[in-house]
């Protein structure tokens, strides 16, 4: 057995194979703090709400955090910010550890392979992803896994471009970051991240309309469509404006990085778009239209949007982990064995 794990700013998702099906487990990567009382903790436990108690506080974690935040008119707190562990959140590490344990579960056997997603260093920020990567790796190793990081954009390539010999441009629009990877026969030619994603859209729309960020997030996730025809001056109108701004920003950086990497002009490249931020209706059409207007030096054979964008990164990690487990061990060097025997 093997597992893939998408460690996202908004959601943490695991993937594993059970028979002919891929099974996903998901939790929202957030928590909310409420006052402790015996009655409150009893009710939470009876309702199977994921929570932990610390001193005189109770922390509701995961999918229920947003519901509790809206009920109590509080802001959720996030263990991750801009795609990596938040340096501003003191409870980030224990909360992340709890959510990861709930999502990935115990290994089926010692040193079971798990490939977990990690972003590339952003090209528009001085953020470093190394501390985040090593911390998540330590969590998983302590649980008994043999953990390996996989670039998030490369995970999209593994998940969605097997039929194209793992060649193409994979773009994961996440909450904290947008990850971009161009691969040729599973070898990354270009990979980078952008320090903007769904959170940036929510924050800008909230500021523009005077609406709490969690409320904006709920509106975006419920039934938001990128059509630019409704709610002028409201939350959905602001979301549409900042969605388009994000796409222009990402495509401009793709164009710049391709020029700097001197990518071969004769390529015919499929583009696959995924990630939770890409889920609204109309996203793919808007992205494709803006990409066609960009000065890309190679041919784009088509833009596709995966059917289940939330699960693409976790699935790609699973593909990599299963491939790694199936690799035969290298035979021992016979000359070295002979020398050891003589000694």
Notable characteristics:
5-stranded mixed sheet, 343 residues, 15 strands, Nucleotidyltransferase, domain 5, alpha/beta, 2 domains
Task: Write up what this structure looks like.
By secondary structure, the chain is an alpha/beta fold. It has 2 domains: 279 residues, Nucleotidyltransferase, domain 5 (2-Layer Sandwich), CATH 3.30.420; 48 residues, no CATH class. 40% of the residues lie in helices and 26% in strands. It is built from 11 helices and 15 strands.
Structure, briefly:
This protein has helices at residues 38-46, 63-71, 92-104, 130-142, 152-160, 198-209, 213-223, 235-261, 283-292, 312-326, 334-342; strands at 2-7, 11-18, 21-28, 31-35, 51-54, 57-61, 80-81, 84-85, 112-118, 145-151, 168-173, 178-184, 187-194, 268-274, 299-305. By secondary structure, it is α/β, with parallel strands linked by helices. The model has no long low-confidence stretch (mean pLDDT 88).
């Amino acid at each position: 057995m093997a597992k893939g794990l998408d460690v996202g700013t908004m959601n943490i998702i695991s993937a594993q194979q059970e028979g002919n099906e891929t099974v996903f487990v998901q939790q929202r990567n957030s928590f909310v703090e409420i006052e402790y009382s015996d009655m409150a903790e009893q009710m939470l436990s009876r309702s199977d709400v994921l929570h932990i108690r610390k001193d005189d506080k109770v922390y509701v974690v995961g999918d229920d955090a947003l519901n509790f935040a809206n009920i109590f008119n509080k802001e959720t707190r996030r263990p991750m910010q801009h795609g990596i562990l938040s340096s501003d959140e003191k409870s980030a590490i224990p909360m992340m550890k709890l959510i990861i344990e709930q999502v990935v579960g115990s290994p089926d056997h010692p040193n079971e392979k798990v490939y977990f997603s990690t972003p590339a260093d952003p090209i528009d920020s001085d953020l470093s992803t190394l501390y985040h990567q090593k911390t998540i790796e330590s969590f998983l190793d302590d649980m008994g896994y043999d953990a390996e990081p996989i670039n998030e954009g490369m995970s999209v390539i593994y998940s969605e471009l097997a039929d194209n010999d793992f060649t193409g441009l994979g773009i994961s629009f996440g909450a904290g970051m947008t990850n971009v990877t161009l691969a040729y026969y599973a070898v990354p030619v270009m990979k980078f991240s952008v320090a903007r994603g769904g959170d940036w859209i929510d924050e800008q729309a909230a500021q523009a309309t005077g609406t709490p960020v969690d409320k904006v997030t709920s509106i975006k996730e419920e039934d938001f469509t990128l059509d630019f025809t409704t709610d002028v001056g409201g939350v959905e109108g602001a979301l549409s404006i900042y969605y388009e701004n994000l796409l222009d920003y990402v495509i401009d950086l793709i164009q710049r990085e391709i020029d700097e990497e001197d990518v071969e002009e004769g390529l015919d490249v499929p583009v696959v778009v995924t990630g939770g931020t890409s889920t609204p209706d109309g996203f793919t059409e808007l992205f494709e239209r803006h990409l066609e207007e960009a000065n890309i030096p190679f041919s784009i054979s088509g833009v596709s949007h995966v059917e289940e964008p939330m699960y693409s990164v976790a699935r790609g990690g699973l593909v990599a982990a299963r491939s790694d487990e199936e690799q035969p061990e290298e035979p021992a060097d016979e000359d070295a064995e002979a020398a050891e025997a003589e000694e």
